[in-house]
Amino acid sequence: MTSLALAVVLAALPTQPVKEAEALLSASKWPTHLSPKVALAYRLARTQAGRDERHWLIGKSVTQRGLRVTLRFSRDVSLADVDAVETRGCTAIRLPSKVVVRVGPVLEADCRWSALLGLAAVPGLLKVTPTLDAIPLAPLGVPPSTTLEEVEAPALRRASHPVKATGAGVTVIDIDSAADVFHPFLFRADGGRFPWLDVDGNGVFAPGIDGVDLNLDGVLNVGELLRLQKAAVYAVEYAPSPGWKKFNDTSNFVVGVDWLYQDENGNGARDFGAVYGESKPGFGEAVFVVDDVDADGVLDVGERLVRLGSSKIKAVLDFQTGTAQEFTRGVNLTQFTATPDEQLHGSMVLGSIGGGDANLTRFHGIAPDAELLLAYRYSATSLLQSLVWGQQKNAKIALWEMANWYFEPLDGSSDLEAACDSAHQSGMLQIGAAGNLGGSKKHMVFTAPTGTSTAELSIPKAYSAGVGGNFNLSGATTASISLTLGATTVALTGAQGAAQLGPFQLQWFTETSARNTSMRGFYLATANQLPLASDNTVTVTISNSGTPAVVHGYVFDNGSSWGQGAYWLANTTDANTYGTPSTSDRTLAIGTWLADFPIPPRLAGQLADHSSRGPRGDGLETIDLVAPEDHITSFTSPNLPWGQLWVGGGTSNASPVAVGVAAALLSLQPTLTADQLAAQLRNGARAETQMGTLPNDDWGKGKLSAYRSKYSAAPPTVIAPVARGTVTVVGAVATLNGSTSTDPQGLALSYRWDSDDDGVNDAPATANSITTVDAGAVARYVTLEVANSLGAISRVRLERLAGGVDAGTSDAGAADGGTADGGSSDGGSSDAGSPPDAGQPPDASVPVSDGGSGADAGVFADAGNSSDGGTQPPGPPRGCGCSSGSGSLLFAIAALGRLLGRRRPR
């Protein structure tokens, strides 16, 4: 049922529930066990009558009979507590598995209006709080890409070689908007390895001419032709003028970036979707990437195509219908649907955590072997359910893609924060995006002296339809607050109330948090919920009869997201702007900096202006870490073809980078507790002179660093060895000889062979450079992998020639020793002497330079602000708490910059 229908029913019901609610509003003394936000939620639901859309702030939290609430107890919630609540007219929320949604001292339930007063008799119940909708984090999108190196992910993989440090065995949950379950970036390259067919015989792969030999008969059959899908990389450009910059915009096939797809039915397009079912690799016509063994950027003769197979998304919990629905891989995942603009944010985040392949695709997530869960938080009613669902699915890391600053005490005491802390203690690491409020003027702070002081709130007409805020007071709490507009002044007295303030309907509430933060919240809305014709300035008067009190003022509106909409005219600061649930005692709060795409006047490596800062409202906690936000990841947008990529942004994209690092570390150390993992991440943070004394409220403990978190030392730089070898066949014996391989630093080498060309190494690494095998088991092409003692690797493709040899030479340094085995694994076995001693860094004294595989700068030759004939990305998605953009490119970019918090230089 829509919010309109709910509101109309509420308005028309001459029933006891409505009478009970009205009685609550008119009571001279507000019940202490009920949050005054109950009154706000009820009034907003009543004023929603006549609107054909759900209210942006209350979402679906109001039903015909009451509202969705969280119930906070003085102890962990027991089943007896659940029974006590349900016998008084409430219904505890349950997952599709029937598990009750309770985390520590917090229970979620739907309560009738008539039940609210009776809940006072429930033993141990402290407070009943309505669930208001959350403003999700909007991506700030703004390619070479150095983010992997900046967080030391390749260095961690090199140090752990041949054991993978790519998140294998770790399940993470992203509580976010929707995602595109059909994006090829979110599939594993486990659908089989196949030779390619050189139809025109020129030794060069040509999409649309050449194909894949699926049945291994050496002939191009119907359905084996491969076509090219360009994976353009989009970046938002803010200066000198707003626009989209499109990279990889040429017609040629770029190995490691673009996709090849099977045109099975010959219609010239790739078909995919639910019609193909769960068992079809890639959920549609096959998509292939290249095992570019020598990393030369060319699909050479003898190199293999690797089909994308299983989804990385284990399950999705969807709340679009108002009732939780689970979509599970292998059962019904292909049936999950959402509009493309709602999929943008979640696709970005999941891709940054675990998209792509560490060896086969140039761009990939930090932990590409992790299992991904997505809770599509269509409204705030889904938050606790998502957390409990993640626990049920054995997620070890939870990512909160939200950072609320409004109607929150920001002192770590909210129900959601208590639930996060309990989940952390139970073993699930909590990571949250700090938010993007920097520079928005949505926060002001000053010390209200004894007597009277004022502040001014500017409400531009474009953002006037719905404006809210709150004043959080510490120190003396005797201050009274009033709002003045024109000749009208309204005092925010009592626990809750409503009045007319000029053209606005004003509602307010007052409550004190469990940690003694006094919060005075207000909400201003136009009568028709449409913008006004002129700007307005509201004067706030604080009358303080006690000792000086520190006043934090926060403001928000229904249109600007992180950008500057309604704002304070004076005393603004970026301090105290990171939001809940990152403000919980145990959740890691992640701020952001930019590695490759700084926004002028900032330089690369500097903190992003829009990154929210600490400390917490009570001053006791602050930002934990900062991570680079401009990681290249999956992109889904209404006006673009499938398979696109983009430069993500904001703390929205920095926090999944942190999740990926945490998953990589946990895959190497699966017995770590959440506390131990959090401590590793904090203690491994990288300090730089520009940061000043650490920890601080801008940088936290410093820059996220995977290698230092594991080994407590800076990673050594590495030059990869040069792989060379021969395959000699004499009679029934094949001799595999890698003895001509060399290492630039003279480090000891180990050798692994894939002699049957199945993508799996024959045996664990060995120091022996020469091995003999049965010639009958040796394929035409053999892969040699050589690793040095610092874990840097190179591979070379060797062709078996009867009576002869092939002395193939790898591109020295072309392969990064830290990457996963490109589809090659040794069944989990490892050479006891190859990796560094567990818990100890490898020898860092060797002064070497990194010759690892960087991105080919040629792919990203500046194509300018090229247009694609109407296929430019639209503005930000609704799933990101932003208006859906449409129309011209300039309109979309202007909206993106305005709504998402990235601002042009001032």
Key features of this structure:
eight-stranded mixed beta sheet; single chain; 906 residues; elongated; six-stranded antiparallel beta sheet; alpha+beta
Write structural notes for this entry.
There is one protein chain. It is built from 13 helices and 41 strands. The strands form eight sheets. The chain has an eight-stranded mixed sheet with strand order 16-15-17-6-18-19-31-32, sandwiched between helices. Strands 8-7-14-13-12-9 form a six-stranded antiparallel sheet, with no helix packed on it. Helix 7 runs parallel beside helix 10 and helix 8 (383-392) packs parallel to helix 9 (415-425). The two termini are 46 Å apart.
Concise structural overview:
15% of the residues lie in helices and 25% in strands.
User: What spatial order of strands do you see in the largest sheet?
Assistant: 16-15-17-6-18-19-31-32
- Helical content (DSSP H or I, runs of 4+): 10-25%
Strand content: 15-25%
Structural class: alpha+beta
Straight-line N-to-C gap = 46 Å
- pLDDT averaged residue by residue: 85
The Rg value, from CA coordinates, equals 29 Å
* Global outline: elongated
Number of strands: 41
Low-confidence stretches: 1-15, 139-143, 811-906
Number of helices: 13
The main pleated sheet reads as:
8 strands, mixed
